[in-house]
Write a structure and sequence with these properties.
about 190 residues, mainly alpha, Arc Repressor Mutant, subunit A
Length: about 190
C-alpha cells in the first residue's frame, strides 16, 4: 500500500517524504531496510516446515533450498543463509533430517522417517506455508510484468537524471514528488 498526502499523516510531500524521513532515522535504510523493521515472510515454525517439505521432495543442500524458495515465490522472496543454515541444523538436531552421502564440499540433507511423520502430522500447516509461496509467485507474475518493469525503470531514470543537476531547486523537488504521488494515487484508484 502506498502512503501519501496529509490524510495518512505523511505531510505535503507524501510517501517519498515519509521514506526519506525514515531513511534519516534509520541510517539511510528507509522504511523497510532497517534492522528488525522488515516483516518476516515466515515465522520460524513455517520456515522449518517449508525446508522440511523441500528436503522431502529430494535431498538438497542449503543453497539449493534458498534458490528453490526464491523460485517458488517468483523471485519475490529468498531467505537469507543466516536463517536457513541454523534452521537446517535445528532440523538435524530434532532428528527430522540427516546428512546424505554427497559429492563435493556442500552438505546434502535428506528427510528421516521422523521427518516424514512430522510432515504428515503438520500437513495443514505445510500446505498453508506452501500456499504463501504460491500466492507470492502469482502476485509477482501480475505485478512484475515486462511493461511495468520498463515503465518503472523509465520513471526511475527520468527522476535520477532530472534531480542529478546542480541547479535543482526545492520547488522542482516538490514538483517531482507531487507528480509521483499523483501517479500513485491514480494507480490505486484503477
Amino acid at each position: 500500500m502506498f502512503y501519501y498526502g496529509k490524510s495518512h499523516g505523511c505531510g505535503p510531500r507524501g510517501y517519498f517524504a515519509m521514506w526519506a524521513h525514515s531513511a534519516n532515522r534509520h541510517g539511510g535504510r528507509g522504511m523497510r531496510g532497517g534492522r528488525g523493521r522488515r516483516r518476516r515472510m515466515f515465522d520460524n515454525g513455517e520456515l522449518r516446515l517449508v525446508l522440511l517439505k523441500l528436503v522431502s521432495d529430494q535431498p538438497r543442500h542449503g543453497y539449493d533450498l534458498i534458490r528453490e524458495i526464491e523460485a517458488l515465490s517468483g523471485g519475490a522472496y529468498a531467505p537469507s543463509p543466516g536463517v536457513v543454515y541454523p534452521t537446517l541444523t535445528l532440523l538435524q538436531d530434532m532428528g527430522l533430517i540427516d546428512e546424505a552421502p554427497a559429492d563435493g564440499a556442500r552438505k546434502l540433507f535428506e528427510i528421516t522417517g521422523a521427518g516424514t511423520a512430522h510432515l504428515a502430522e503438520q500437513a495443514e500447516a505445510v500446505d498453508a506455508a506452501m500456499a504463501k509461496l504460491a500466492a507470492m509467485n502469482e502476485r509477482s507474475e501480475r505485478t512484475d510484468g515486462m511493461q511495468v518493469r520498463r515503465a518503472l525503470g523509465n520513471l526511475r531514470e527520468s527522476v535520477q537524471i532530472r534531480l542529478s543537476h546542480d541547479d535543482v531547486s526545492a520547488e522542482t523537488l516538490h514538483a517531482v514528488t507531487a507528480l509521483i504521488d499523483e501517479a500513485a494515487q491514480k494507480i490505486e484508484r484503477l
